[in-house]
Design goal:
The chain is α/β, with parallel strands linked by helices and 475 residues long. The chain is 41% helix and 21% strand. It has helices at residues 3-9, 47-53, 95-104, 108-124, 142-151, 177-188, 209-222, 234-244, 248-254, 272-281, 289-295, 302-308, 323-342, 349-357, 359-364, 398-405, 432-449, 459-474, and strands spanning 15-24, 27-30, 32-37, 40-46, 59-69, 71-76, 127-132, 154-160, 195-201, 226-230, 262-266, 284-287, 311-314, 382-386, 411-416, 419-423, 426-427.
């Protein structure tokens, strides 16, 4: 598509878009179209019917393109983008050695820029929604909201409610300050089209039992979610067993924190009993396969979750913002961790991972009634994907091909709330390259200030050490 196509797509609402196909929950529908008005899908149906029903709208024809829901990132850390590569080659639980000191070194400008940089990468990769699990930077959370808003991405915005240093007080009238802040945060963004507040606790041991219970109640009443990293690493599971005699997920259940309002990140180490707890309570999971590969102890049993009816979406954990590669990693990790040993050649197939990357992810993060599906009344958060490519043109099973062969280079346009936000990988309303240049400057300064501890040297330093050892041995 050319500049005139872009101008037509960026025009004022309402719009009538006629692609080759629309990806619906039941699969791709050839010859369908959509109308968009006021940031939502006004109608979705056969193109000829919509054109007859809206003769006043000039049809924007999109040959060679699939219109599909935008990806939903169910777990992200927007202010960690300056240190994404610092995690390479590092063992588990790097938050103590890398993320806490790095985020602590951010000021308002660097926190804003880091968050907007993460949003840029996400939108380039087809994400229309990101779920931020709360920042440790010493800035008002509005800084992160502003970055997401200015970037043009939908954001589930976490407020960290850690209070492990507080004393458990049996006097119910003594309300911790963290709960007052949580309650204010949940109403702070009323009426905002792109910012959706949520609460967050870093790990169960980072909050008192009273706060774990109270944040669950507050979120449930507000129709929001509480984000908690759960059963991610062996060390965390063992600490919980020593302290409580319960695994982290079991501990959350014992204090009344499980339920539809809980979004548990990772959940890589689950017993059969814990799978039952998840299914019975309606608790949602963010399955983060790339994070498992880069720094994890295990891969979440996502195919078993799907079979048991556990709600879950897919999350990047800030690893890389590419929705197609995330969906591929989700299937690939299941194949390696579980499918090869059992002879399961499907491992959920393409449709499972596409569904969890959009509609299932939206449900997991509390936005299932708002986004994640191309349907009448839903937010017009969608992608235009070029399917007239060597990877996708010879289609036999488009969902599988999108998972296995799709990539962000095929994303022509990204829309959020009915507005064209990205065109061929670049923002349409602000200067992406300038942001990247500024982020590079600020990142170097922030990392230099932070007391980051890495176990492994960089690849270049490691290679130089090996060569030096080789020369020493040769002498």
């Amino acid at each position: 598509m050319n500049q005139s196509d872009r101008d037509s797509l960026a025009g004022p609402s309402p719009l009538l878009l006629v692609p080759d196909a629309v990806l619906l929950p039941e699969g791709p529908a050839d010859g369908w179209a959509v109308t968009i008005d006021d940031g939502r899908f006004e109608a979705v149906g056969p193109a000829d019917e919509l054109e007859r029903a809206h003769p006043q709208l000039p049809a924007v024809r999109l040959p060679g393109h699939l219109l599909m829901p935008g990806f939903v990132d169910a777990h992200h850390h927007l202010t960690q983008s300056f240190g994404s590569a610092l995690a390479f080659g590092e063992p588990s639980e790097i938050f103590r050695r890398v993320w806490v000191p790095l985020e602590g070194a951010l000021d308002e400008e660097s926190a804003y820029t880091a968050a907007k940089l993460a949003a840029l990468e996400a939108m380039r990769g087809g994400f229309t929604t990101v779920t931020d699990a709360g920042t440790r930077a010493g800035v008002d959370v509005e800084v992160i909201a502003s970055a997401a808003r200015d970037a043009g991405i939908r954001c589930v915005l976490g407020l960290v409610c850690n209070d492990a240093d507080a004393t458990e007080n049996e006097d119910a009238t003594d309300r911790p300050a963290v709960l007052d802040q949580a309650e204010k945060h949940l109403t702070r963004y009323d009426g905002e089209p792109l910012i959706h507040p949520s609460l967050a606790v870093s790990i169960p041991e980072a909050a008192t039992e009273r706060t774990l219970h109270a944040t669950a109640r507050l979120a449930a009443e507000a129709g929001a979610v509480v984000q908690i990293h759960v059963n991610e690493h062996l060390a965390g599971v063992e600490r919980s067993l020593v302290r409580h005699g319960l695994r982290p997920l079991e501990h959350l259940h014992s204090v009344g924190a499980l339920g539809p309002q809980l979004l548990a990140a990772h959940a890589t180490m689950l017993t059969p009993g814990e799978l039952t707890l998840l299914a019975d309570t309606g608790t949602a999971i963010s399955y983060n396969p790339v994070a498992s590969a880069w720094k994890g102890n295990a891969v979440a049993p996502a195919t078993a979750m799907a079979e048991r009816g556990v709600r879950f979406g897919l999350g990047t954990d800030g690893t890389r913002g590419d929705g197609f590669r995330l969906a591929e990693a989700a299937e690939f990790a299941q194949r390696l961790a579980y499918g090869l040993a059992t002879g399961d050649s499907s491992c959920g197939a393409g449709w499972t991972w596409l569904e969890r990357a959009n509609r299932g992810g939206a449900d997991a993060v509390g936005l299932g009634a708002r986004t994640g599906t191309v349907a009448q009344g839903m937010a017009a958060d969608f992608l235009l994907v070029d399917v007239d490519t060597p990877e996708l043109a010879l289609s036999w099973d488009l969902p599988w091909e999108l998972v296995r062969r799709g990539n962000r280079d095929q994303i022509t346009a990204v829309f959020v709330a009915g507005r064209l936000r990205m065109w061929h990988g670049r923002p349409t309303e602000w200067d992406g390259p300038e942001l990247v240049r500024r982020a590079a400057e600020l990142a170097r300064a922030a990392v230099a200030r932070a007391d980051v501890t890495r176990v492994h040297p960089t690849s270049t330093a490691s290679r130089a050490l090996i060569r030096a050892q080789d020369r020493s041995t040769a002498r």
